[in-house]
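Practice set, problem 2.
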Amino acid sequence: AGALYALRHHRERIAEDHERAGILAELFRGLCSDYPNKALSAKTPDPQTNMVYLQVRPDQAQSMVDALSAMGVLVLPTGGGWIRAVTHLDVPGQVIPKVCDAFAKCLKGL
């Protein structure tokens, strides 16, 4: 439903969301380097969308999602330790580094 609404009402913004997702993906890849035993992998779908995935150990995904939620970062566990983050109209560009900082704080606590 959200994608359909975006196509109908904010088509010109979709490229911005994809660009922000690319920035977030690069930041997530940095987390994989900084926390190699905690952040296992980062990926974006191909073709590029506004979704970004970070993989942690499966037994830690839900606790990380809960901790992020407590910090105001809403993400979704998708199975196998993957956590999905989505950029959209309500996620301004200046928030992206703060989202990454929240993920880093959670990874430190794992």
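Problem 2, part (b): a different protein.
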Amino acid sequence: AGGVAVGDLTFNRPDAPVIVSVGPDTGASALDGLTRAETVTVSGVARPFGQVEVLLDGVGLAPVTADAAGAWSIAVAVAEGERSFTARQIGVEHASLLSAPVGITVDRTG
């Protein structure tokens, strides 16, 4: 986590969530990052019961709440092309830094 200093006060920043998967991956292999799907599921882990904002190409989507184990997921409609997902914890504290990006290429032509 890190801190955000405001005057003499330091506010703790929550750890960034981790995106574990984006799928389904319908390409030649299960790990090639290609899909034909119109909707993908983005899944990850965060602080238990924490609010997570998932961003698609830098644009925030509806927040989701992690469960007691910290797991969360959201279904996202995607247009064709290269897409990048990131996530951050939000809520009453300061927002976390962004997660590492996870990309997927949507190709419905082949």
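Answer key, part (b): The chain has no helices and eleven strands. The longest strand covers residues 81-90.
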